[in-house]
Structures are given as C-alpha cells and as structure tokens.
Amino acid sequence: MQPINPLDGRYYEKTKVLAPYFSEQALMKYRVLMEVKYLIALSSFGKIALRKFSQKEIKILENLYEKFDDVSYQKIKDFESVTNHDVKAVEYFIKEKLKKTTLKDSIEWVHFALTSEDTNNISYALILSDSVEEIMIPEINKIISELNNLAKKYKNLPMLARTHGQPASPTTFGKEMKVFTARLEKRMLGLQSIKIQAKLNGASGNWNAHLAAYPKVDWMKFTKDFINGFNQGRVSKLEANLITTQIECHDSYVAIFDTIRRTNTILLDFNQDIWRYISDNWVNQKPKAGEVGSSTMPHKINPIDFENSEGNLGIANALFEFFARKLPISRLQRDLSDSTVERSFGTAFGHSYLAYISLLRGLSKISVNENKIKEDLLAHPEVIAEAIQTVLRRENYPIPYEALKELTRGKIIQMEDFAKFIDTLKVTPKIKLELKKFTPLTYIGFANKIAGK
C-alpha cells in the first residue's frame, strides 16, 4: 500500500495512536459496541418480548467488540461488498456471530427499530468522547505543563516587550509564557464541559417503529437512560437529544471542533512568538547529533518543530472550520453528505495531534538566553519614558507626555539622557530620586507575580 495521506505515510508512527479511534476498522468496532450495548439494554428493559440474557450470554455479546480484530473487520467488509451499506453489514456480522450461540432466538432484535444514523451518531459520539479524553486533552495538558514550568522558572527574567513590533514597556519571559497557559487552560475547561449529544429515535426522529411495536412504552425515557449509560467514568459525557430529524444535528460536534480550533489558534500564536524569540537569539536551540539544518549551510539549526506544528495546526483548523460550516446543515430530514465528512474527523485530529507532539519536541530542545534578553532590553532605555511621564502626570506636571515624546521619539538615547532630563525638571529632589530609580530591568509591573500564579 502506498498512502497518499501524510498521516498514514510519513507521519504514521507519530499519529498511529489515533488509529483505535478514527480508522475505518475502529469505526466498525464502535458500531458493533453500540449495537451490542443496545441489544443488552433491550434485554434488560423488561417491558418488551425480548427475554433477559444470562451473564454468559452478555459476555458473548461483549466479546464481539472487546475481541474485535482484523478478521472481524474483514468479515464486515465482506458483507458490505454485497450490501453496499456499512451499518447493515455490521448488523449481519452480529447476527452471523449469534447464530451458533444460545442467542440465536434473539437475532431479529439486533438493530431493532433503529435507523443506521442511530448506530452511527452514537458511535461517533463515543469516538469523539474517547479520543478527546484519552488523547487530545492529555497532550494539550503536557504543553500547558511545559509552558507553566517556563513561566515559573523565568518569572523574574525581565524582557523587552514589543507592540506593533516596536520596543514597549518591559515584561518578563515567564509572564509571556503564562499568558499562553492561561488561555489554554480556559479552553480545556470548556472542552471538558461540552456534552456530546446523541439520538436514538428512528428513521425520522419520532420513534415511529418503536411505538408501532410497543405503543405503551416510554421510549423517550429508555433513550435517555441508554445514552446516559455510556457516561460512567467519562469526563467527556454524552447527552440524549430527543428533538431531531433522522440525524442528530451535530451542533455539539461543532462545539468540540470549535474549541479545539480555538486551542489550535492559541498554539499557532505561540509557535509564531517562539519562532521570533529564536530568530532574535533570545531562545537557543540545542543541536542534536546527526541532524542537519540545511543542505548547504552547515551552521543552521532551524526551528523546524515549531514550523511543523504551525503548518499542521493550519491544516487542522481549515478542516475544523469546514466541519463547522457543513455538519449543521442537512437537506430536509437528512442527506448523506455528512457521512463522508465524518470520516475525515481523524484527519483533523491527526494534524492537531501531530502539531502538539511537534511543539513539545521543540520545547524539549530550547534554552532561554538570559544574557541576550537582558542585553536587548538594556539597549532600549526609552521604554521607561512611560513610567516617567506617568509619575509626572501624578504630580500635575505640565504636559509631561509631550516632554518625554520630544526627548525619546525616533531617537537613540541612553540612561544618562534620562538623568540629565530629570535634573532639568521643576520637581522636588524626592521626585527626581524616584524618577531616577526606574530602569528597564525593574520596570516590569506585576509581570513576575502574574507569571507565578
């Protein structure tokens, strides 16, 4: 096989951790899981003709997904080659497996009163819940942890800030890292709070077939109980959507994708900042034995991990944005265009995950150049002009902003120039002493405290 997708080719060893969630085989396994859980729930319900299964029979059913393997998957694909319908193929697979067991009398209860979208939407809800909880959030939390470590370690390291790319009031390196961790932490709280909606209400969302068979049963309550039954031990929980068309509207999917997209955008921002810090020699990269940075320039150590991360985040976000535009829209009761889009979820997650591990690899290879950061800050003493003019405003000194503007704007000045300027001011000696205490290294506001939170 020659993959045309880099996630399954060049990057497969790095992204294969997502295969148990987003591969075609994984989708079939989740469909089997959903159908089996549904059949067991019907058996336990007690209000329909289906008999109650023994524990041994329940284990036979659970083994269908717990021991799902390549042979199981190929059997489903064989059925699909005839049916040209993937969910019906799953139904036939389960029925065939039960024919030689004590459950052979219950075969026609498999997929009872369901439409394929009942199976599909719950399967995808579980896929998203598991992959977000077990893969995506832990990896993002690793980034948060690394950035928090940098924030604490360098909370007191004064650094030149830049607004519009120009020298601005000083900050600390740690505080700049803390900004990113705070943003990411908010997104993770939001991601964990999203409930993934799922439906189990038949071909047009009205439980028509369920009620035709058992008109006195509260199928809405059954649906809620069944879907809530998946939530034990889950952080990313499912929630029954009782008002739908044939398909679940995918709005909660979009909420997840938008939150990951916003997280990715924050990381894009970080990648570009750290790239600039490396370019300015404020952050150094540790050379790795055997690696080269250029096919012609031997000296180079390129920030390729952060660049790789940036590129993959861009691809992922383009897909997430498309999902958000596409998935909530379906003609009338439903059209099938969402199905092929859902199969691309793993591509967006794969590029996101690849970006996260690339970023982490980049972080593991950097060191902060404290001397260079301080040197560049001290080369811009004009940044304390803000402090001086603000204190003079406090003292009701006439037009202090304009005075400092005349002294500093567009000019190269030294700390001695400020001392001479302060000496000319008509203020008390105490105020002059206060003004002369300002230096670029100490004029950092609450930056160190913010970084230490």
Short description:
The chain is mainly α and 453 residues long. Helix content is 60%, strand content 6%. Helix 8 runs antiparallel to helix 11 (251-279).
Spell out the blueprint of helices and strands.
Elements: H1 12-15, H2 19-22, H3 24-45, H4 55-66, H5 70-83, H6 86-98, H7 116-153, E1 158-163, E2 166-172, H8 173-193, E3 196-198, H9 208-213, H10 219-228, E4 238-240, H11 251-279, E5 283-285, H12 304-326, H13 337-342, H14 345-363, E6 366-368, H15 370-378, H16 385-394, H17 400-408, H18 415-424, H19 429-436, H20 447-452
Parallel strand pairs: 3-4
Antiparallel strand pairs: 1-2, 5-6
Q: Could you characterize the architecture of this molecule?
A:
- The chain is mainly alpha-helical and 453 residues long.
- The protein has 3 domains: 101 residues, Fumarase C, Chain B, domain 1 (Orthogonal Bundle), CATH 1.10.275.10; 243 residues, Fumarase C, Chain A, domain 2 (Up-down Bundle); 68 residues, Fumarase/aspartase (C-terminal domain) (Ribonucleotide Reductase Protein R1, domain 1).
- It is built from 20 helices and 6 strands.
- A two-stranded antiparallel sheet has the order 1-2.
- A hairpin with a 2-residue loop joins strand 1 and strand 2.
- Helix 5 crosses helix 6 and helix 7 runs parallel beside helix 14.
- The radius of gyration is 30 Å and the shape is elongated.
- The two termini are 51 Å apart.
- The mean pLDDT is 96.
